[in-house]
Design a protein that fits this description.
By secondary structure, this protein is of the alpha/beta class. 28% of the residues lie in helices and 20% in strands. β1, α2 and β2 form a beta-alpha-beta unit. It is globular and about 70 Å long.
């Protein structure tokens, strides 16, 4: 933890220097080259990618500002760094990697970022495609009853089920793992996990995955560099097996001719203008994070999609600095971890635990007497053969919050790790693992670890900061279209739901926008 604290201080100092450089330069400039565009999207993850495509299809001239770089898959299969040979590509502007031995690396605009908070460590992606570059490619539609444990009834689940979830899946081209791939040695842990769940009398099913399984077959036959079959998840898939957003939504958006994506543009300031428009100030950086220029853009429509942490920080900064004066007191509130909890189960036989990814299957224990939970087997590097790592998820109450730190010009995150709700979720997961242990003669290695999340949600929550279509209260042309909308939990892996809600938001916007 000491390394993470040191890294937090490094990042805060870097951000403060970068932001102060930008603002001081801005104050001394008349912005003679100020640029106007009809719409701006900040961020290119699941919400931003959806917004970009629908704006482009509506022939609305749009600029997408993305802090990270592009990550095109190369024929040589060397786009991303690996766990075996980590370098700066692994991590966003950090002197060390984030996992395991925290190896020293060159500071670079790498693909994975971390927010070290009080009581929680939250991970997120950085690059064109956002967290789709580093996520486990799970496109999970939550059960209706579980959905309403997290979301307000003003969201029509049937509409999502019939219209928006299928629309997203059709573009991501998601599908469960084919049996011929599942039966290979690479996916031994997946098969064992599914067999153990069934033996314990629990509901087990394959995930729908945004994965090109034909490329995974090419990995198996040696035609592509091993990525999915070697459990590569977090730093990107060099084979191109992952259907990340740069290959579908964003590619389609650019193809309309009305959308321009600008990588390596870090937004530092949002302000309202008298005519209902917005000024966006950003630093253009190089791949080492050095500011090489400042830019100012004005737009009519602004869509925030920088993720739960990025969007919330931008709004908090604008609220504290008075550049968006009508933001209400709920900005920065109602944040959660999606109930993420990592566990390890010890078996008495080989499991190939670091192979076969991404996460292919799920155990659903919705009738758990303590709280409904799901558990997903997930490959991780450097695991001892015989164990199986798994990620549990539950309904985390949105008990976390951000405050704005003026000295670092960033948002500080607070999470009550030992709250009653978190303790209940931990007990529920332990109950499910006990059923698995009893039925399979395995041993879960300690209580679930709730100290980290790969699914940060909330901060600009629907029915608090904005309506359920993402329109920010007090600002008819300002929209939140990412995980910031969601009050702490999505009922499952959130990417599909974030994209579906963004599709819903964009349909509403395009139907009612002022022309």
């Amino acid at each position: 933890m000491s390394q993470l604290i040191k890294r937090r201080h490094f990042l805060q100092a870097s951000l403060a220097a970068t932001t102060s450089i930008g603002i001081s330069a801005i104050r001394g400039s008349a912005f003679n080259s100020e640029e106007y565009v009809e719409a701006i999207v900040i961020g290119s993850g699941f919400g931003g990618a959806v917004a970009s495509l629908r704006l482009g299809q509506a022939k609305i001239e749009t600029i997408v500002l993305e802090r990270g770089r592009r990550w095109p898959i190369t024929d040589a299969g060397d786009t991303f760094a690996t766990f075996e040979k980590p370098d700066g590509r692994t991590t966003w502007l950090s002197p060390t990697t984030l996992f395991f031995d925290q190896s020293p690396i060159d500071i670079y605009t790498g693909v994975l970022d971390v927010k070290v908070g009080n009581g929680i460590t939250a991970y997120r992606g950085a690059g064109v495609g956002g967290s789709s570059l580093v996520y486990s490619a799970v496109t999970y539609q939550p059960d209706r009853k579980i959905f309403y444990k997290a979301f307000p009834r003003s969201i029509n689940y049937e509409e999502l089920d019939k219209v928006y979830y299928p629309r997203v899946r059709s573009i991501l081209k998601s599908a469960p793992i084919p049996d011929d791939i599942l039966q290979t040695d690479y996916y031994l842990a997946s098969r064992i996990f599914m067999e153990q769940g069934a033996k314990a009398g629990l509901k087990v099913r394959k995930h729908s995955m945004a994965v090109n399984w034909d490329i995974v077959r090419q990995e198996i036959t040696g035609q592509k560099v091993p990525s999915a079959i070697n459990g590569v998840l977090i730093y990107g898939a060099n084979s191109g097996a992952k259907n990340s957003l740069d290959k579908n939504y964003l590619k389609m958006a650019e193809a309309t001719g009305h959308v321009e994506i600008r990588p390596l543009h870090v937004v530092t300031r949002i302000e309202e203008l008298n005519n209902g428009r917005f000024r966006i100030v950003c630093n253009q950086i190089n791949e080492q994070g050095t500011v090489v220029g400042q830019k100012s853009l004005i737009c009519r429509y602004l869509f925030l999609a920088a993720g739960s942490i990025g969007t919330t920080e931008l709004l908090l900064r604008a609220k504290v600095n008075g550049t968006l004066r009508r933001l209400n007191k709920y900005v920065g509130q109602f944040w959660g971890t999606n109930g993420d909890a990592l566990s390890v189960v010890i078996n008495k036989y080989p499991t190939n635990p670091s192979q076969g990814g991404p996460a292919t299957s799920v155990i659903e224990h919705f009738d758990n007497p303590i709280a409904p939970v799901i558990i997903e087997q997930t490959p991780l590097p450097n695991l001892q053969n015989g164990v199986i790592a798994s990620l549990g998820q539950a309904i985390a109450k949105p008990e976390g919050y951000f405050t704005y730190n003026a000295s670092t010009q960033s948002a500080d995150l607070f999470w009550p790790t030992n709250s009653a709700n978190n303790q209940k979720n931990s007990q529920a997961l332990q109950y499910t693992y006990q059923l698995l242990d009893k039925a399979n003669d395995t041993t879960v290695a300690g209580p679930p670890d709730l100290n980290g999340t790969t699914h940060p949600l909330g901060g600009a929550v629907m029915e608090k900061v904005c309506n359920t279509y993402g329109q920010v209260y007090g600002y008819p042309n300002l929209f939140v279209v990412d995980g910031s909308l969601i009050p702490g939990s999505a009922g499952a892996n959130p990417s599909l739901t974030i994209a579906a809600l963004a599709e819903r938001c964009m349909d509403k916007f395009l139907l009612h926008r002022i022309r």
